[in-house]
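Moderator note: this is an archived Q&A kept for reference. The question asked for a predicted structure of one protein chain; the sequence and the answer are reproduced below.
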Amino acid sequence: MREPTPEQIRDEQIYRSLGLTDSEYALVVEKLGRHPNYVEAGIFGVLWSEHCSYKSSKAHLRRFPTNGRQVLQGPGENAGVVDIGDGMAVAFKMESHNHPSAVEPYQGAATGVGGILRDIFTMGARPVAFLDSLRFGPLDDVRTRYLFEQVVAGIGGYGNCVGIPTVGGEVQFSPTYRGNPLVNAMCVGILPADGMMRGTATGVGNPVFVVGARTGRDGIHGATFASAEDPEEKERSAVQVGDPFLGKLLMEACLELIASGAVVGIQDMGAAGLTSSSAEMASRAGGGIEMVLDHVPVREDGMTPYEMMLSESQERMLVVLERGREDIAFEIFRRYGLEVADVGRVTDDGRLRLCWHGEVVADIPVTALVDEAPVYERPIAPWAGPQLEDIPTTLSIRDAWLQLLAHPSVADKRWVYRQYDTMVRAATVEGPGADAALVKVPGLDKAIAMATDGNSRYVALNPKRGGQIAVAEAVRNLATVGAKPLAITNCLNFGNPEKPDVMRQLSDAIDGMAEACLALDTPVVSGNVSLYNESRGVDIQPTPVVGAIGVLEGIQRRIPSTPPKALIEEHWSDWALWILGREDDCLDGTLYGELAVGRPVGDAPYVNLAEERRVHDLLQTLSAKSMVVAAHDVSEGGLAVTVAEMLMGVDAGGEIECADGFNLHGWLFSEAQGRVVVVVDRARAEALGAIAEAAGVPARPLGSLAEHKQIVVKLAGQSVMTLGIAELRQAYEEAIPAAMAAHIQGVAEAGD
């Protein structure tokens, strides 16, 4: 089949099917000084897509703080890098694979993990951990259960095979994601602080290599699919297929090649494949690249230059080597059984030039592709403020407590992470289930702390405050285990940016996140924007997800989320529960409110960034002094869920007393930020109070642990309710397994 001519592309408006609008096509013609051919139009279409160019969000992303004394590499490279001291650094990034996962959930999730893995070892870092942040529709929906099952299997299938532990993450369920699940994957790696690689194509005449897998037809126009189309209406051909065993070989081969010192620049072939990797590497160097596509290893007959350039086949890299050292690449990659091909040269003319069968099939200025992509200031609707209303407390405390613990967003997630290898490499200090994961730094008495967090309900109710909370909660999780927060990455998952209301959500959320990053000294060093998350014209709730990184000096100083049972049960009466931070009884934005009313209601919960910072600093002080034996932050479900999770974790009972003057419903279920519950030896409680007072953090005794297996709630000194730990545990632990067991049984019966 013959490719359309430039005239046909223009006259028949074929460029629209390639992702270009009429005005964008006119701009392409202006920059080229002629009409593009089919290959060139496809290249512009994919690189100017929302997924690659961030054309709707770039103007707003510039408001993020990206610098700091700890930052070695900020946004613009394959991953961000921060200094953790002692000559070591951490590379990390989070990316979305939402649209592919809605169409083909196993491969969509698996290739999301594979793609973020390549971003990390491309920086010269040894990957040490995966995390994820997942969003699905209601778990009582048949398709939701299918997507949930397959996404989790895809994450485990890839991560387990490459031998890297999945140590943390989060899963939430809401009707807003019924047709458009979110799959955000994060990877963390360790490298020498002076050993960072970059994705640049420098040195005129240096050879350009394609290495890894052969190029096929899978994933063609995957980036444009992720930029503008309803996932429920997309064919599976846009979804890539991963090979984790090949991915493992590619990782080891690339790290060995980087260690040889022969690499000038290296880039993952992710979204837009060979197109984005070549153009971005040339752009960063201010130069050009010329490639002979006849030399690209392919796995299917008759592939055209258009297909080669836009394929998103997985497990491929583009590498620039020092001229004269080509044999090193051939020896390493052939030893690993991987494809390696010399496909081009670095030039100084600033152009991406492609040759095929002796003819030039594309000749485009690199700056036009990358640096001069359109940036839109889309209309932003005014925001009238939160819709305040009274939240009824007709739902009894007992029923609410049990319903909250059984809500899939809160309930025990062991059904998920038992499918992941969380301990491979034997460096996991704290894995899934803790406030933050901890992974040991080889050869040093320190650990990397990492966590993911986000709550769309808060952002939907108040975008700016919700953005603040997304950062504050992720960073608080690091401090709760005793670590010093360093920086964040993010995935900004929003709806259709052509709608002014969605742009208001995005702009305000970015403002809130930026304020929190400045207040908490956690700059944004990498990230991803995923727009057009909508199904049948209905946008998801705005969902900024934050991945936070910190460092714990002295692994023995870590603070677990639940106290060590052997320590506690020796003398139950020796241990007290304390609450750190400003107490609250407002039900705005809470999951309780959503259960009571049937939708998100009120304003986002209270947050004060200055107070938040003082709590974080206090927790690090308590860690350094080994003052507390457990700490758990108050988040979704409020104080009731926090206390229940701590006590269930140690199989203990306890008593808690409502502070004077507070409404009991609100006090138990408020999701106000900046609060942490700690377990402290009564003999040290007075000292804890003094340290908190000196730090400017409110702190008071909340209650006590007890050998009996009940939670007793007191008000004004009187017991007003008792709940058995066994009853709470049943609600918490059985919710997700029961739903998925019923799903698997239903699938089996349908198969019969």
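Archived answer notes: The chain has 26 helices and 28 strands.
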